[in-house]
Amino acid sequence: MTRVLVIDDEPQIVRALVINLKARHYEVDAAHDGATALQLAAARHPDVVVLDLGLPDMDGVEVIRGLRGWTRVPILVLSARHSSDEKVEALDAGADDYVTKPFGMDELLARLRAAVRRSEPVPGGEDEVVVDTAEFSVDLAAKKVNRGGRDVRLTPTEWHLLEVLVRNTGRLVSQKQLLQEVWGPSYGTETNYLRVYMAQLRRKLEADPAHPRHFITEPGMGYRFEK
Amino acid sequence: MTRVLVIDDEPQIVRALVINLKARHYEVDAAHDGATALQLAAARHPDVVVLDLGLPDMDGVEVIRGLRGWTRVPILVLSARHSSDEKVEALDAGADDYVTKPFGMDELLARLRAAVRRSEPVPGGEDEVVVDTAEFSVDLAAKKVNRGGRDVRLTPTEWHLLEVLVRNTGRLVSQKQLLQEVWGPSYGTETNYLRVYMAQLRRKLEADPAHPRHFITEPGMGYRFEK
DNA sequence: CGCGGCCGTCAGAGTTCCGTCAAGGACGAC
DNA sequence: GTCGTCCTTGACGGAACTCTGACGGCCGCG
């Protein structure tokens, strides 16, 4: 869940933001002054910060600098001041966006989404999606299969088949479903393809291909992958 | 030097932007319609895009989608329309910021700086800037490749291809992804380019180009860089 | 016991895909 | 203009992959 830190000294604005954010399933922390804000940010590590520049205890730009000293969390500035200089100062201090009051809630939320989106890691990036078994491991993101310390080469079809099975670990996948996912919607009945390629997978991955422990046949129904 | 792509059909706005940007030592490309813009973006790989939504040939939001199909380059939208819906649509399509005309040049430039700044890699962050192998080393920041103590000369395309592969060390990168990242979104199928340039890279970097150890072919799927 | 359905195995044919080379064209430097 | 560099394009041999048919084993059933 995305965590938002809202910093504003006007209770009604904080309330409006909190209600709207929570309704959209954000997790929200709120601070009404700069000191509390910096503390909360350090303690809670929000994914995005909404900051009103007009705070009672310190200049909003100081809050930006305080945050930028240790984090690159997106900062969305709210301010009643329209002057160009103020905007430039805040942005150059490290803010990511600057919205002037009064603001539309839809727009603010859209800007918030944009800020969160671009700080996300590349999709299909680092997050390792690895499935381990006793004999081998499958890295779905890197498209790699490792067995006994060395990489196993799979052909596109073999890989595709393996992927479907692994994404349904423990579940029975019908022959028809496998054929259609791997070979296309019009290949619901060519079960001989399955036999051939399942044999390849077993030969490459099973310790004893004749007595598979991971690629289980369910006669007349389909196949199942088990860790 | 930071490269900016300006997309606007009003000559005077383009002129004003180009003059201001060049005075601040940006490198500037300009396009006056969406089709040209997408082409230029693919060819020149700007560090940031300034996009006017009102284009003669296509909807500005379509341009955003066209870019977002293959790149995360920051997009700063200019528009004469103040409506909240327009902003939300553009931002949710993938824009990073939305400025309404008439705009102050100072503010625009500050927002541009903010957009560029946050897309920069973490300075001294965890991402390795230098990747070493037994035979050569790649310095992603300095854009240099060293082999046996001397620098290897790479053409822009060779470098670009190498960069994509190295940034995905160990992971399989599909042919389509490589083509689109290096040559642009409309080059998803010209696999002969890949064959030619992969051969160049191997010739320049592999000890035995006929039996590559680092630039691995996965037939039918793509390529993989291994340390 | 014989039969049929289902599955695993094998090997060859056909097709697709890849590495390599070389020529042509665009572009900028001089 | 001339040169050099780089990108594009086509062609071809060989490698890798997919498809296909045939055969044998296992099991349940008549």
UniProtKB/TrEMBL annotation, chains A, B:
CDD domains: REC_OmpR_KdpE-like (cd17620), trans_reg_C (cd00383). Coiled coil: none annotated. The modification 4-aspartylphosphate is found at residue 52. SUPFAM superfamilies: CheY-like (SSF52172). Residues 128-227 bind DNA. SMART domains: REC (SM00448), Trans_reg_C (SM00862). Gene3D superfamilies: 3.40.50.2300, 6.10.250.690, Winged helix-like DNA-binding domain superfamily/Winged helix DNA-binding domain. Keywords: DNA-binding, Phosphoprotein. Residues 3-116 form the Response regulatory domain. Residues 128-227 form the OmpR/PhoB-type domain. It comes from the Bacteria. It holds the Pfam family Response_reg. The keyword Cell cycle does not apply. PANTHER family: KDP OPERON TRANSCRIPTIONAL REGULATORY PROTEIN KDPE, REGULATOR OF RPOS. This is Response regulator.
